[in-house]
Amino acid sequence: MNGLSTIAGRFIDPKTIENIAPLGNGLINDTYKIMVKGDAKPKYVLQRINNAVFTDVDMLQDNIEAVTSHIRKKYESQGVEDINRRVLHFLKADTGKTYIFENGKYWRVMDFIADSYTYEAVTPEYAYYAGRSFGDFESLLTDLETPIGEIIPDFHNIEFRLKQLDKAIAEDNAGRMKDAEVQEYVQKIKSVSEEMCLGERLYREGKLPKRICHCDTKVNNMLFDKDGNVLCVIDLDTVMPSFVFSDFGDFLRSAANTGAEDDPDLDNVHFNMAIFEAFAKGYLEGTKSFLLPIEKENLPYAATLFPYMQAVRFLTDYINGNTYYKIKYPTHNLVRTRAQWKLYEEAVAKVDEMKQVIL
Ligand code: GN1
Ligand code: MG
Questions:
Q1: What is the mean pLDDT of the segment spanning 207-232?
Q2: What CATH number is associated with residue 233?
Q3: Are 280 and 273 in contact (CB under 8 A)?
Q4: How confident is the model at residue 83 (pLDDT cuts 50, 70, 90)?
């Protein structure tokens, strides 16, 4: 047995394991699919939790357990069919917990949801279903009584992200501040920072609530069945209290971008209004039981905030010498910054149109 099988064998019967192979393309955790003997489809997902990012693994797994069991109970009471494909299920290890710690690393195993598909891009039709699903997800959690910890403090707090950028600039650990392009992006980011911090100001004024949000609503964090129906929302690590802007904005950051998150060709990067319209329609339907006017009217702001915040985060990581995100080449985080900044500008140019769709 190789190392991964030994780890998986603490959650499932090691004799049943056929092989373990990489799965997906997340930038934080390492994910694998586990094939078992006699089964042509993967049966489980093995994940190494990046504990440099998620430092409190107990809190992480408690949050996920609270959210998944709450959703499961609701689905049961609503008589929803096929519940095991509609909500994630984590296995207990030989320790009785849903994770193990071995050789300095944390691992967990969940059921693989069979016949499910993920996409890096969506059509307006799929964007509508996605909007509905993320809206429903937030809606299902509005009456969750178990407290959900802020697993990464200030995760989507743009004021905090800008402070991290300032710190990176001051330390200049990788000597990047002599690069004129880096300086140019810093200037661009700073020139609009006041207006981009709107959400935090509204929160301080007591006008904007925090709700339990998913906080990583990238397109590829949703499972579809073969007919395009949304099965469930995955990658629950970042579920935490946040503004609804997080889920709305981060989905569009990935789905409404006509290019890639790290597109080296900025001509590919535009903000797709058809996706915005379809997603917003689904999202507003899913959240109609609780969404406040202040939340609704600022959804176009959210669509600009997330590419902005991601540009800040990628640039910060580039200046720090690439310590956070996985990269494929040395300037990857700079290329990502350029693409996210372009998307931010494209979204800003569409704000008036977005307002017309929302109101
Ligand atoms: C990370 O884990 P992954 O790849 O789904 C990041 C998100 C970023 C995203 C950018 C915990 O998500 O916040 O938006 O990369 N997750 C964390 O692609 O930082
Ligand atoms: Mg992911």
A1: 92
A2: 3.90.1200.10
A3: no
A4: very high
